[in-house]
Protein 1
Amino acid sequence: MQETRIVVLGDVFGDTGRKTLAKTMPEIVEKYQPDWIIANGENISGGNGISKKHANFLLQIGVDVITTGNHLFARNDWQEVTASVKNILRPHNMLPDNFPSKGIKRFSKEGKQDIQVMNLCGRVFMEPCFCPFQTFDRLFAELDSSVPLIVDFHAEATSEKQAFGWHAAGRASAVYGTHTHVQTSDARIITSNGRNTAFITDIGMTGSRDGIIGVDRDTIIDRFLGGYSDRFTAGDLPGKAEGAFFLIDGSGAVQTESFRFFAF
Ligand SMILES: [Fe+2]
Ligand SMILES: [Fe+2]
């Protein structure tokens, strides 16, 4: 199997996230020389959901695959977006299989190793959904095991994310958490049945460095102080683009690290 270099980017939040990504992408590409770039787009449109225009923005600046999360469903055009934009996934286990769009897909690009990307949601402190562990097992049984599988596990609880990582270890080539918007420092290779899986609990976010998980900080502080606040808007620049790098070969993953690039 051809060695494959993969960059994954944490939830891109609002206009500050878009500006940050546009500014940092050249540096990220230069450093990691990725064959594939996967970005979580669930917060890219005003912090809530993803419009067709912003999905196309991601594809135009070099993202190959867009994963999402619970906030995908914040916009009533989500079905149109997932049907019309190529290479976008929804969390597979948030809806029955027969709903439009999917959370598992194989991707091909000329001269590159094919990859499979899976998008699932956790259940702890999250909206109700089908069991992600059983959904993974069921979907994995149908996949081509010779093609690297990368999983965006969109979940709140660190315990559930670590449990899921070990559940998928040896089967997925990489499992990474999204949704909390706070990067964890535990990127490592875990091994099960002699096969290696890159794992990190949460890759973080792409958006305002000095906001609160992407949102303007004064708005959030007002909400905590008085129980009421203005509508959430994205915090300002400077921005940070957070994510992780995975180097994948026939044994699974051979190298991983998390990263953070700043945009001023
Ligand atoms: Fe998010
Ligand atoms: Fe989320």
Protein 2
Amino acid sequence: MLHVVGAGLAGLAASVAASRAGWPVTLHEATDHAGGRCRSFYDPTLDLVIDNGTHLVMDVNRAAIDFARAVGGLPMMDQGQPKFPFVNVSTGHAWTLSPWALMRRPLDLLRAVGAFGLDERTTVTQSLGRTKSFSTIWDPLCVAALNTHCDEASAPLFAQLLRMALKRGLSSLNPWIFPAGLSAAFVEPALSTLRSRSVEIHFNHRLRSMENNALIFDDRRIELGPDDRVVLAVPPWAAKDLFPSLPDLATRSIVNGHFRLDSPPTLPGEMPWLGLTGGVGQWVSARGCLLSVTVSAAEDVVTQDSAAIANSLWRELAPLLKLSPDQTPPHRIIKEKRATLAHTPVQVGLRPDALTPHPNMILAGDWIKSPWPCTIEAAIISGLSAARQALGAPALTF
Ligand SMILES: Cc1cc2nc3c(=O)[nH]c(=O)nc-3n(C[C@H](O)[C@H](O)[C@H](O)COP(=O)(O)OP(=O)(O)OC[C@H]3O[C@@H](n4cnc5c(N)ncnc54)[C@H](O)[C@@H]3O)c2cc1C
């Protein structure tokens, strides 16, 4: 039996891969829902299904796309054009970011991909300098990709991400979006797939502690037999409670403001997304009457009162939509205080590998050592790889 603890994307990926190979799998999740930091839910104030936070997947994220395809979620995703309109909300300056815009600044691009060498401790600001394109290209790209401000983000990690994308060609920067929400693409089809394979799924089942040969939950103790394996796909703070020798990893927050408008908006640039600089919000996405704004690396914002956040985000958005800044529409603010790791040089160096002191238990999750920052891609790759290691089956796939 494979016990998978945590039904985020890493745990779902491990469970789907192992069950496909015919392994009996039991999935244990602490909360009453799957998806972890990447999920949708019905919000009664807005009377809409919303995501905990807008997520963007690019075509370079092959594991995420393969996983969605394998579980039948790909038809719930749409591929968009690699065209990202931006507006500076303070000055009104507007521009469009595209892969070709990157190519037009070859020296900056070479610096960004680390072509002149990068020390492990270098930050993105140190590697790029505050050049003309810093505030229009690199700063918004870095904070969106690493959820960490350029002044503290790891330049080698950012460089690696750009190299992985460019190596696959410009189309790898085509974005994928989720018109029916994240859960419709990743979570619900994964749960259906697991149920069709008779995987037992236990919600409200928090793992409290472990012994060499036992998993201890609130209401039961599961003895592990010699052939049993465990994939522990919980976030870093939960894993640290179980294995105190793991490093203390710093995190960064993301705040999302969801607004329900009277009619579907048209954003400047006429794409379903818009990048913002010069204010609080950084990305806007539109889905029907739902307008969602993301604030990444939001340590200054997350501590504020939700009504104040909603009003300040709306005051930035309203002029772009030609609506009244004084009438904030019905809204929901979601604060994810520990959305991802802080991708600083120190924290990146602390990401542990998947092994634990118990030979039958393997760690998984976006925070495990990876060429990817903490993303859907990192979570899914790590879940698959943990299942492969736990079961000694290197060819396992979704
Ligand atoms: C607001 C926001 C925006 C984001 N935007 C993007 C984006 O645009 N693109 C992108 O690729 N990524 C994005 N991410 C990151 C992405 O969501 C995560 O990297 C990914 O979901 C992590 O998956 P995971 O399975 O590793 O961890 P988690 O999703 O944290 O899953 C861990 C699961 O373990 C459960 N658990 C915890 N403790 C226990 C226990 N003791 N017993 C049993 N279960 C337990 C939790 O309840 C949870 O369900 C974003 C994240 C947030 C929060």
